[in-house]
Structures are given as structure tokens and as C-alpha cells.
Amino acid sequence: MLKMYLGRDRRSRRRSVAGGTKVAAHPCPSRTSSQSRSSTHERVHHLRWQCNHRKSPFRHVLRYLRAMDKLSTREEIAAEAIAALHDDMKKNTLRNDRARRELAHIIHMHDTMRNMAEEREITENSSMFKHWSRDCEEKERHYAQEIERCNAELRSRRFPLDESLEHHTLVSLAEDCASIEASTYDLAAQLSFYRALPSTVMEAQRALEAMEAEFTHEAADGVESS
Description:
Radius of gyration: 67 Å
Distance between the termini: 150 Å
Helix content: over 70%
Shape: rod-shaped
Largest sheet: none
Number of helices: 5
């Protein structure tokens, strides 16, 4: 927009120069309306004096003044637009700064929470390792006690130096023989019992009849005694 305004102003100045009017340079008017009007009146008076002195047509001066007024108006509009853009830039800068601070705070909180989680995990692992170490020490102590107890029992069961391994072997053999003899006696008793049993059917019938007769006789004796 400002470029468009400046382009129009250049074209106005070209038309005024092409008309044959040469105007002395003046400082740019201010942005306030009262000061602009006063400076415009002063320029009109000065330009009227120059026209009378140089015998130039005053309509070119009026045309130039109208162009200058338009330029001043456009400059004021451009200045307001620029000021509004500066305000928007400041607001955006403040918003970006606030967003950066919030992002930095979030990153800091994230790093803090991650460090806390890592420290908690390290603490838990350390306590767990201590627990395992304590259990291993207790187990090692228990195994050492068991080994010591077994060694003491072996030392208590160890034979004196004057006894030989042969004596220990003989004692063990004697115990085995006694066990075999007891089992042999049981087997002999079972064999004698099996030999007393009848070997044929006739012998079995006679034994059965004898047992029945004996049972009948014992029953009769019981009845008579009652």
C-alpha cells in the first residue's frame, strides 16, 4: 500500500514538473491536522509570493498543493498502518516469548520428572539388590553351617587310628549275615508250613474230614459243658 501511495505521489510530481512550475523544496508536513493546516497556509502564502514575483500561473501551485495534501493524508494513513503493524508485531513477540517460556517450563518439568523416575528406579533396584544380597549372605551362612555340621558328624564317626578298614568291613559283613540268617529262618518256617499241607487230593479230603470231625467233637463238648 505504501508503495502504491509513493508511486502516485511520484506521478503527481511528474505532472507538476511537466506543467512548467518549479517549486522550492519544503520540509514534510507533520502528522497533526492543526500543524498541517498552518504549514499549508504558510506554503500557500510563500508560493503566492513566488508566483507574483516570477509571474507564474497560480493554478499549477494549487494543483501541487492539492497533491501535497493528498500525499500528507496518505502518509498519515501509512503511518497509522505502520504503527498498527508495529503493535501487532509487539503482541506477536510477547506471545512468542510467553510460548517460549511455557515450552521451557514444560521441558524443565519433563526433565525433572524423568530424572525423578530414573532416581526412583535406581533406588528400587538398589533396595532390591540389597535384599538379594542379604538373602544370598543368609543362604551362604546357612550352607556354611550345614557343611560344618556335616564335617563335625564325619569327624565324630571316624574310626580311631588303631582300627583298620578291615574291622569295619567285618562288622558290616556280620550285620549282613545276621540279617540273612533271620530271613532264612523265616523262609524255613514258611517251608515247613507248606510241607505240612497235603500234596494230593485224597490227602486234602482226609485232612478236611479230620478237621470236620474235630470241629464236631469240639462242638459236642461245648454243648455238654453248657
